[in-house]
Design a protein that fits this description.
By secondary structure, this protein is an alpha/beta fold. The chain is built from three helices and seven strands; from the N terminus they run βαβαββββαβ.
């Protein structure tokens, strides 16, 4: 368990001036409105029958992420230790909640596993069942979530993707 006195604290300094380069090289997404964006966090910390080790420090990571994005004007939705079925139900539910927004960040933190011969990976849910990264990402595509068409979506998967240290497929 991390020592709370050693956890770095930070303060978010909000911008007072924006500088933009509207050159033709890069499309800019403007995210300064009232509906700045959503942060959706799925964290999996405990697993049945000690199937996987307890994930120390995840609560601190999530707390810091939620603080940062809240300070940036995002609406924050956080889910902890959901089963596979609950995760899929929540992904469907998000279609009713995430509306009229300028961007979406999705963070998933759990144990992960490489799928040999695939760029996809498995993620361990609280009940021990696995869910594919593609199953999560596909819920946010233009076909499945038309309200997010032309809206930037950023996915962060904080999990192992292989057995080697610092493994990259």
């Amino acid at each position: 368990m991390p020592d709370p006195s050693r956890i770095p604290q930070f303060h978010v300094v909000k911008s007072t001036k924006f500088t933009e380069d509207d050159g033709d090289d890069i499309k800019l997404y403007r995210t300064r409105g009232r509906n700045r964006g959503f942060l959706v966090v799925f964290s999996y910390i405990e697993f049945p029958n000690n199937m996987e080790p307890y994930r120390h420090g995840v609560d601190v990571d999530c707390k810091n992420l939620k603080y940062l994005f809240n300070e940036l004007g995002f609406k924050v939705l956080s889910y902890q230790d959901l089963t596979r079925s609950e995760t899929l139900d929540t992904l469907k539910f998000l279609k009713r909640v995430i509306v009229d927004t300028e961007c979406v960040f999705v963070v998933v933190s759990s144990h992960g596993y490489e799928l040999t011969g695939s760029s996809d990976n498995d993620i361990r849910c609280h009940d021990g069942k696995l869910i594919r990264i593609s199953e999560i990402v596909d819920h946010f595509n233009n076909k499945n979530f038309p309200a997010l068409r032309d809206i930037p979506k950023v996915f962060i998967f904080q999990l192992c993707r292989g057995s080697d240290e610092d493994y990259l497929p």
